[in-house]
Amino acid sequence: MAFQSLSESFKILRHPVIWIAGLLCGLVAGIQIYFGLSGGAAAFYAERISIFWMIVYPFFIAATYGAIKSDDYSLKGYFSSGYAGYFRVLLPTVLIMTFVMIVAFVMATPAAISGVLDPLMVAFSLFFVILPLFFFAFFYDTAAVFDDLKVFECIKKSFVGTFAKPFLVLQFFFVLILIFLVIGAGFMMIWTGILADQFEPLLLMSQDELNQMAENPESLVALLGDYGLKMTALMYFLGVFVFITILLPYKAVFYKNHISEAKIELNIPETEQGEYDEKGRWYKYS
Predict the structure, then answer these.
(1) Does the pLDDT at position 111 exceed 70?
(2) What Å distances lie between residue 19 and 64, 115, 155, 246, 248, CA to CA?
(3) Most C-beta atoms within 10 A of its C-beta, which of 19, 75, 134, 193?
């Protein structure tokens, strides 16, 4: 079923607007990696770009899902969907990220006090808090757009839908990981082939020299040179672009086909039925 959703999502890729989110995400990622590796003032701008993109990106997620939901792939429809669903995606994203930051802070506090990082504490927080949250809340953004749900409701819908079909969701993640590995391995091979001349000195180094270079990333950056950094940023851009462009429609189609049908209790109070008379008195219908 996961592969069937993937096959359906590939058909959606014929619409150019579906590429916008992946294109911009890849562009930002490429700029970040180039500025980050360049060091100095460029690293400062890389951090600012990251913060800006975290605020803007939910707009393009909502726009992509909205276009798929309405089957309107015009530019006007795309940006209208982004405008309508922006806060529906942004607010639960902020909530989830805040929760993760609180967990990280709580887990890091004992290490900060004692000066020793407990591997068991790190493993506990990763496998029993972060990963389960990622797994069960993964479809919160699709729930927010496709079912027009509010902050807590869309997170709840993701949990309920995933609990209802855990093995099917595992299939989804298996396919997603497979896509990630194929794309990553492919661009890694292209990257190493392009920069074969830059990496040639590594073949002549001893094990001790390689260990020293591993401990000092700046030496590896110097080995790549400006050309190597640009090619690294380009490969990173292409890899992120392809992955995100496949991910969003795949996730949307899978949610629409399998998770959206899950029912949740929204706990909406019933509205009393009645009317006011000419003196302003309220009469409830029996």
Answers:
(1) no
(2) 9, 46, 26, 9, 10
(3) 19
